[in-house]
Amino acid sequence: MAVLCYHSVCDAWNSPLAMSTTDFAAQCAWLARRFRVVDLPTAASLVDRRGSLPGRVATLTFDDGFADNFDNVLPALRRSGLTGAVFVVAATLDRGHGVDWVDDPPAFQLETLTRAQIETMSNEGIHIGSHSLFHKDLTTLDYAACLEDLETSKAILEEIVRRPVPYLAYPRGLWNDDVAKAAKAAGYLGAFSLPTGPEPVGPFSLPRVGIYRDNGPLQFKVKNLRAYQSARTSRLYKAVRG
Ligand SMILES: [Zn+2]
Asked: How far is the CA of 187 from the centre of ligand 1 (A)?
């Protein structure tokens, strides 16, 4: 199965990035019935050479650290007995950096998680990872700037959760060899991408499957098929990709 990548779970934001609370609850119930949903470090250790998890294993990740991850995701995971991982944009916490990276923002201000919310989630077993410092495209930074971004974001988050932050999700899933090298040098154990085509798989390019608002129940199930990871260039992939 796959490492799933969500963003927001919010009824008021009509965007591919925002899953409705009803659909999300249904997906959680389906996953809880059929899969062993593991935490992020376990998932990272189980990803095979093709980027898939074993047959009945799944894991949920959430990018960007939107406040609805606390209001809507945490209670839904709790109800289904599931766990997950949230990748936080660290400058939203100690530098007041607002959400400026979303292509189709709603009319209302998108809020991000507070320190206290992140602490609570971490204490409840939600894995906290880094989604960089400012959500810049890391492939556009020079090596020194990329390294500094990844080291600083890791340190900010580790100070809040008071435990190691070993995983990173590249903003928009974008990486290259230098970015992967900087992630390793910054002390991460692994990093997650979000491929839209064939990409090499490794500890610093762990692929995820994006789950979006317009994915109906059938698409969601297809995306969870083991074959999906390796079928991305096929016609099936073109029909279901979000
Ligand atoms: Zn993001």
From this structure: 21
